[in-house]
Design a protein that fits this description.
By secondary structure, the protein is an alpha+beta fold. It has eleven helices and 17 strands. It is 34% helix and 28% strand. β9 and β10 form a beta hairpin.
């Protein structure tokens, strides 16, 4: 359940990843920044120049006293910013940071839980100053600790994301769909024993395991339909061994979240998870694929504030985006005018 509050402060330390979305973010950055400034938002843009740079920028800004961060990029950029801020910002007595995100990446999955679907709704949420507390998840692995907002996944889903990032980045969210079909030939069911809270170890083979803080992955795929970002729990989605044709049958259900009612999908919840397998494997975290030897996951409840929209506004913006897209096909100038008018009304 969303527990929103209002923060009308308009000053933001802005980290901009021009490479996000296959380079689309960089191409659209200048007009976006002009729009933000025109609406009275005090934007201080800091472009990234390499993987990991967003982490360095966020860490430096935090130590200099910044507590309000705006991410212009995708889920991976937000992941980097988060890991520049925690765990330092979680120390007792520290002001909770606020994170705003303008979707400019490939999937932009996390923002769907924030009722933000596009650039317009993100800017409107920033202007409204509505935020909500959000859990983060601590990931301990053999080489250190990471944190995520959206989800961590191993197995087939990590393979799909890896190939989507490598070969289909320019397709946006559609790249994940293309990668699913490409990777079907490699479908397998490895054993990765896990312990949920203090329960028994479970080493059953699984094509994939997903550990979700929010509902969506790959853009609009509702991997964990019952997840809430502020409930102090990880939603665990286990896929049981199945044939390729059975996986294809489940695929359309992912977009509605009804796959969890299937006999080949199990859904659990936990505050922490432990891993037994001592091996390095591809791990998808918030849209990035890293080679990690996992040790444990632990929820850090309501660790940060995240700028959010409202369900009503998200629906309105989605309809407006469809109208603008149709206008763009016949009259590009009219389409731009409509977008400006929509922003003025917000």
């Amino acid at each position: 359940m969303m527990r929103a509050s209002n923060d009308k402060n308009t000053s933001w330390f802005t980290i901009l990843n021009g490479a996000a979305g296959g380079g689309r973010c960089g191409a659209q950055a200048d007009p976006l920044l002009r729009r933000l400034n025109a609406h009275g938002l005090a934007i201080e843009p800091h472009p990234t120049n390499a993987p990991g740079h967003a982490t360095e920028l966020a860490k430096k800004a935090w130590f200099e006293g910044t507590r309000r961060f705006l991410c212009i990029g995708g889920d991976g950029t937000a992941f980097e910013i988060l890991n520049g801020l925690v765990p330092t910002c979680l120390a007792e007595g520290q002001e909770r940071i606020t994170l705003g995100i303008i979707p400019a990446g490939t999937g932009n999955s996390f923002l769907r839980d924030m009722n933000i679907r596009n650039e317009e709704s993100a800017i409107q949420a920033l202007l409204a100053g509505t935020t909500q507390p959000c859990d983060i998840v601590e990931v301990r692995h053999s080489q250190g600790t990471l944190y995520y907002l959206n989800l961590l996944s191993i197995g087939f889903t990590a393979q799909v994301t890896g190939q989507a990032n490598l070969r289909f980045k320019s397709l946006g969210a559609a790249g994940y769909i293309a990668s699913v079909f490409l990777n079907l030939i490699q479908l397998s069911a490895p054993s990765d024993p896990i312990q949920i809270d203090d329960g028994p170890w479970d080493g059953r083979p699984a094509p994939f395991l997903s550990f979700c803080n929010s509902r969506y992955t790959g853009g609009a795929m509702m991997m964990a339909p019952h997840a809430e970002v502020d409930d102090g729990a990880i939603d665990i989605i286990r896929c049981l061994p199945l044939k390729r044709v059975e996986l294809l049958a489940q695929f359309p259900k992912l977009f509605r979240g009804t796959h969890v009612h299937s006999k080949v999908i199990e859904e659990r919840r936990a505050a922490q998870v432990r891993f037994e397998q001592d091996r390095i494997q591809p791990v998808m975290i918030d849209g990035e694929v890293l080679d990690l030897n996992l040790r444990s996951l632990r929820v850090v409840p309501q660790a940060i504030q995240v700028v959010c929209g409202t369900p009503e506004r998200a629906q309105t913006n989605a309809k407006q985006a469809q109208t603008n897209a149709k206008q763009a096909q016949t009259n590009p100038d009219a389409s731009m005018e409509a977008r400006v008018t929509t922003m003025e009304r917000s």
